[in-house]
Each structure stands twice: as structure tokens, then as C-alpha cells.
Amino acid sequence: MARRTRIKDLFKSETEAQYTVMGWVRTFRNNQFIALNDGSCLANLQAVVDFENTDAALLKRITTGAAIKIDGKLVASQGKGQTVELIAQSIEILGDCDAEIYPLQPKKHSLEFLREIAHLRFRTGTFSAIFRIRHALTFGIHKFFNDRNFVNIHSPIVTGSDAEGAGEMFQVTTLDLNNIPRNEDGSINYKKDFFGKQTNLTVSGQLEAELGALALCDVYTFGPTFRAENSNTSRHLAEFWMIEPEVAFADLHDNMDLAEDMLKYLIQYVLDHCAEDLAFLEQRLIEEEKQKPLAERSEMSLIEKLSFCLEQPFERLTYTEAIEILKNSTPNKKGKFQFPIDKWGADLQSEHERYLVEKHFKKPVILTNYPKEIKAFYMRMDDDGKTVRAMDVLFPGIGEIIGGSQREERYDKLLKRMEEMHIPAEEMSWFLDTRRYGTVPHAGFGLGFERLVLFVTGMSNIRDVIPFPRFPGSAEF
Ligand code: 4AD
Ligand code: MG
Asked: How far is the CA of 327 from the centre of ligand 2 (A)?
């Protein structure tokens, strides 16, 4: 095809010169002004059509959604709203679009409606901005770790283990479900299955990252993870992406420092690289907030909220300290929490996490040293035998954005914990080997990528920050 200039580049190009652009028509006003978008940036290019000298049949085909190619001359714009415009000299229709039935009309559509047409929502300003920011964050994450000499490990997607021990796995099988091979005792004969054993989609790449860290020292994974938890919330997906750094010769404090540095770096990265998209999403949020009652409106705009997180050192406290604060909090005393906090040991819900962040400390919080009963088997036991060296990073509007820990590197203690929690040690001998052969203190965490994108874009539903969300009852596209 002919060479095209991206619209983003065109805005910075010399005027009084010839260019070819290709993209999709957003609107066509008065048979004269085409707003053209090619996804390279938020802004549309205004192309001016000489309608008196253009074939009427062609003009009719310039409809919202049509893909077109325009050759023309770039000039300084006379009109308001743009600095340059393209004087169209020839227009070619690349792909017609029947505007009568095209679902994306040039008007405001609800996010719920756009979710139903996720295959087309990339073509809206909001979603193109979200997915450009998602890309920038992906790139920023690799840059952050690469600059610090971390090695990216591709952990497997099909595994035989349940890293989190929560049993929320999607099974992977090629067995004929209408004719399942059985052992004599009636149990399923997985020897006949594809891998000769029971397998599932991974819930986390951590266990494999630990193997890498105990040789390469600083590693990270960035891959899809899957959880068959039946939580239909605005913060859970069945398929989501996780970033899991793992560091040898590191303890919980090093882990907290790395998490805080990484989050701040990524927020700054987006502020530096996505200014136009952020400004657009901020405006969108302001409009949305106007629909809410005054008391529920956010005190800060999106960009203020991002900058605020950069300026504050994250508050660090233990689970035990947090429980005291929550127990004595006004919403707890007034019975406002759906899950009242009455005693040490309670698992924290999103409402408690958000209270701590948004009302009590008014900044990001890192909670540490949780009761062992509510955390995974691999976390390092504290000397009191009651708590483990866990850490959760809590963010405004989100709740938990990161979960991590210092790992139990002592063989006997790890084995004992696995037995207590009914983790099949014989199938995990490869994991235990690291504790047999040159074990060292190490730590790591998992950042939920979509929760980060949610925070940075100011969107409120996680289904709107991944192109094709998977959740209970839905695996469209
Ligand atoms: O706290 P989680 O379960 O921790 C782990 O999986 C550890 N193996 C991580 C590690 O130490 N390497 O999950 C980590 C993060 C959560 O804090 C949350 O942000 C995100 O993953 N997450 C989800 N995001 C979207 N949908 C879900 N269903 C999620 N479950 C967890
Ligand atoms: Mg967690």
C-alpha cells in the first residue's frame, strides 16, 4: 500500500506539503469536514472536502465508521479546535460502513453498552486512550526491571500445581468428558490425560520465579494468570495479567521498597508519556463525577490523585496495628461495615482496606505480618509462630493492588507448613529442592496489572481496562 503518515506525526509535520493518511471516519459534517482517526493519538484529523468537485456517490460513502484514504495538502487551520487540517485532493473508500446499522454512533454510549461490543470499542476515544495507556504501562514495567538488571522469566501457563493453595483453578484436559477413563476405585485416571497427570491453568508464576531467582538473583514474570473464583466484582477477572518480581538475598523491607519504587516509577512513567490521554480521561471522570451526589464525589482529579501518590511515602504498618485502627473506627462502631471487625485474625475485605487508605491515612498503605491462617503456605513464619512475613499494598479506590511476602526459605519449616495446609509435598519436590540445595532468604510480590491500569486511568470497572474480559458466565470474542 501507499505509505501513510500517522495522524499523530502529521500534527507535528510541515505544512504546505503533501501527505497520505488512512483511518476511520468519526464524523462527516456538512459534506465538507471529515474527522478522521487512526488510533495513533486521541485527536482526530480534520480533512476538508471540496464537495462541489467531488463525486456525489463518493460523498455518500464517507460515513461514520468507514475506512478511507486521503491524499492532500496539510495547511494551517482557519477554524477553531485544530492547528492544522488536510485539504483533501483525492479520497478513496477502503472499507464501506453502513451507518444505519453501525453500533457506534457519533454520540455518548454507556460503558455497559460498549462492553457488549468490545470488538468495536477500541474505536472510541475512551477505549483507545485506555489501551494506549495499558501499552505504555507494559513498556514501562519492562523498562523498570530491565534498567535494574532483572531477568524476565516466562513461567508456564499450564501447570500441575496450585501456587496459592486456594483451589481456584481451571482444569486443562483433553479427556473425553462423556467417557472419562477411571481407575478401579472409580477415581479419574489422569494417566490417560494429555500430560499424564492432572493439570490446570496457572494462578501465579511465583513458584517458577523462585526457581529462577535462586540462580539469577533478580527476576520477574509478566504473564496471564487464571482464577476460577466466582467473584463477580468490579475488581476481579477470571483471566488477568500479573507482574511477579522475585529477588534473592532480600527480606520483607527490600520487598516493600521495590514495590513502592516500582509503583511510583510507573505512575510517573504514565504522567510523562501519556499526558494527552490522561487529560482526556480526567475530563471524562469530572463529567461522570458531576452525576454523583456531592458527598460521594472524589476530592481529587485523576492527575491530582496520581501526583499525590508520588509525593507521599506509603504508610507501612502491621496487620495487628491495622486491626486496632479498624476495630475502633467510626464505621465499625456504627455497624457500617458489611463485615464488622471484632477480633484479631479476621480477613480484611475491600471495605476495610479502602477505609484505611482513603479515610484514615489518606495515602497508599502497606500492611505486613498477617496471621498465617489467612495467607499462603510459602510465606516466611515470624518468630511468634502466629504471623507471616506477608505484605499487601493497598491503593485508593482499588484496595489490594499488590500481594507478596518474604518466602519461607527454611526447609523444615516449609515442609511442616505444607503438611499443615495439606499441600502435596511429594508433587512439589522440585520446589522444595531450592530449600535443600543452597537456600537463601528471598522475597517477591505480585502486582495485578489490570488493577494498576484501573487506578491510573481512573476507570471504575476492571472489565473496561482489558480488551476482552473473562468473568463468570462470559468469554466472548
Ligand atoms: O495476592 P495474590 O493472590 O498473590 C499471588 O498470586 C502471589 N503469588 C504473588 C507473589 O507473591 N508473587 O495476587 C497478586 C495480585 C493481587 O494483589 C491483585 O492485584 C491481583 O494479583 N489479583 C487479581 N486481579 C484481577 N482479578 C483477580 N481475580 C485477581 N486476583 C488477584
Ligand atoms: Mg492477595
From this structure: 22
